[in-house]
Amino acid sequence: MMSKKLTYTVQHVQAGGKNSNSATAAVADKGTQASAAFFSWPIFSFVRSFNQERFPLLLPAKKSDAREESHDKKILWFIDQLTDLNGPAMTLKKLGWLAHERGIKLSLVSSLFEHERMPDLPPNVINLPMLFTWQLPWYKTLTLRIPSLIKALRIVKEYRPDEIYISTPGPIGLLGLIAAKLLHVKKIGIYHTDFYIQTLSLSNNRLVPIVWEKIVQKFYSAMDEIQVPTKEYIGILKKRGYQSEKMTIFRRGIDSKLFAPRDTGKSFLMEKYNIRDGITMLYIGRISHDKNLNFLMDFYRELIKRNDNVNLVMVGAGPYFDDLQAAMKDCPRVIFTGQMPQSMLSEIYSGADIFVFPSIMDTFGMAVLEAQACGLPAIVTDAGGPKEIIIDGSTGFVAEANNMDQWLKTFDRAQHMIEKDYNSYLVMKEKSRKHVLDNFNWEITLNTLNGRASGFEPDKINIA
User: Fold this and answer.
1) Residue 2 has pLDDT above 70, yes or no
2) CATH class (in words) of the domain with range 265-440
3) Phi and psi for 253 in degrees, rounded to 5?
4) 10-249 matches 265-440 in fold
5) Rounded to an integer, what distance in angstroms lies between the CA atom of residue 213 and that of residue 38?
6) Cβ-proximal residues to 338 (8 Å cutoff; 6+ apart), any chain
7) pLDDT tens per residue, range 326-354
């Protein structure tokens, strides 16, 4: 078994951390002091004390200058990290492109370095001037960008939004909250990431997760509406004290042309990584402690005790990449690819036999949705949001989080289908893609954003 294993339970997740003694991982105790320093930044004091008399530049337009009520809705969507290869960033970039193509007045607001203004960013991005940056001490690959407050607020006022969406409770998201309050427009918070569980897995200081959870909960309590990716997480957040009466489902979509089965997937893996035989498991996502990857490595080691003809392809980057790669150097069939461009992911999904996603803190699991769209059955945990993407036994499998015996038995079921009942496996692959096409559609989200009734009831998902 690998050291530093995450030992917190599903009950711990749902109860909001009452068993915090069970969280383990390594980060310096200076995390608490760093957190306190960051949240003493003047903008946080400003939230508590601001008033429009001090900031007349943000007073609402006079009646004579107001637009007609029939104007198209204008939306600003704030996000701290827009260029990362994570679920929220990829979701927002896709929404930005779709809104631009359809003429919907939606702009993404972030603060970018010069080298981050890449061609894959949609043209409707507002780049706020940056004052300085701050690196999280417990997450070395994540840098927070601190915007110039007054300059940023002037930019927002000039856009004159009707609604403000906020994806992250960082400096950019906080600025969006301030702007919404000053301009008296509706503010909608999107709950993408469970920072409580994430910091539990990254910090050995028990105070850090508690402090972050209180801050994040206060942040979302200021919203008029909170959109959550899954019903599972509405229940989890309600138990922790979030205002469930404000919550609705934020249903994501997928680019079904980009993420589709490719006949060349097997040959792609063969040529690029010399994978020629055996069953190939695939993980795509951030390589970090909070993804519960120690359990996945232990699971793989148990598998090869019984069958050494199993490959594991790990796609992604993150703060745990070097350590994890070094820990698995004695397993030649474990392949770490590093970060891959989105255009290549369909080939990798199509070349694998089973997708594995051991995370117990994901509110949704975009990689699981991508795998299913490519016709790849998945094994996910029964904790968090990914299990709502999977139809257990039909498009994949749901196994109890951190239960080794159950994961091994679940893999045996998948292996039996692949090796002994391939027709059933093909049916599962077809159902995986059909389920995604039937239920995860960007048009639903765009129609909702644009103020048109979609007729979609988020609690009624077709599982036929």
Assistant:
1) no
2) alpha beta
3) -120, -170
4) yes
5) 15
6) 315, 316, 317, 321
7) 999 999 999 999 999 889 999 999 999 99
Q: Let me know: does 408 contact 303? Beta carbons within 8 Å.
A: yes
Q: What is 209-266 written as a DSSP string? A: HHHHHHHHHHHHHT-SEEEES-HHHHHHHHHHT--GGGEEE------TTTS---TTHH
Task: Let me know the angle formed at the C-alpha of 394 by 391 and 396, rounded to the nearest 5 degrees.
Answer: 70
Round to whole Å and give the CA distance between 55 and 70: 28
Contact yes or no for 10/361 (Cβ under 8 A): no
CATH superfamily of the domain spanning 10-249: Glycogen Phosphorylase B; (3.40.50.2000)
Distance CA 367, CA 53 (A): 47
Instruction: Write down the domain spans for the chain.
Output: 10-249, 265-440
- 64 to each of 68, 69, 161, 218, how far by Cα in Å? 10, 13, 18, 37
Give the tens place of pLDDT for each residue, 211-256.
889 999 999 999 999 999 999 899 999 999 999 999 999 988 999 9
Distance in angstroms (rounded) separating the CA atoms of residues 11 and 92: 31
Place of tokens 């959870």: 213
